Amino acid sequence: GSSISDKSMEMLSATCKSSLEELDIGFCASVSDKGLGYLVSKVGRQLSKIHVWGCAQITEDFLDGHDRLDEGGLEIVGVWMKNGGGRSLR
After folding, report:
1. 63: closest CA among 44, 43, 80?
2. DSSP letter string, the chain
3. CB 83 within 8 Å of CB 55
4. Predicted confidence band at 81 (pLDDT cuts at 50, 70, 90)?
5. CA 13, 71, 31, 79 torsion: positive or negative?
6. What is the spatial distance between Cα 76 and Cα 90, in angstroms, rounded to a whole number?
7. Per-residue pLDDT tens for 17-72?
């Protein structure tokens, strides 16, 4: 299994907060909405893309509630979202 976790998100936000531009946490089942939200809230605006393929644990709690939601400029790639009662790829 993956050793990437919420603790990893804390470490990245502490050590790469001004340089992290893109993040791929695909298939990292130990990263939660809370951990990813923490990272997004702490890193700079240069973070422009997060890949979350295979991360079914990342939910609308993160996608509709992270700190940069209203600002735009952050693309979340590879997540299934509810869309009119169905599911759609975002």
Report:
1. 80
2. ----BHHHHHHHHHHSTTT--EEE-TT-TB--HHHHHHHHHHS-TT--EEE-TT-TT--HHHHTTSTTTTT---EEES-EEEETTEEEE-
3. no
4. low
5. negative
6. 7
7. 999 999 999 999 999 999 999 999 999 999 999 999 999 999 989 988 888 888 88
Task: Name the amino acid, one letter, at 31.
Answer: V
Dist. CA 78–CA 26, nearest whole Å: 8
Residue count (the chain): 90
Query: What is the chain's alpha carbon radius of gyration, rounded to the nearest angstrom?
Result: 12
Q: Cβ distance 56 to 81 under 8 Å?
A: no
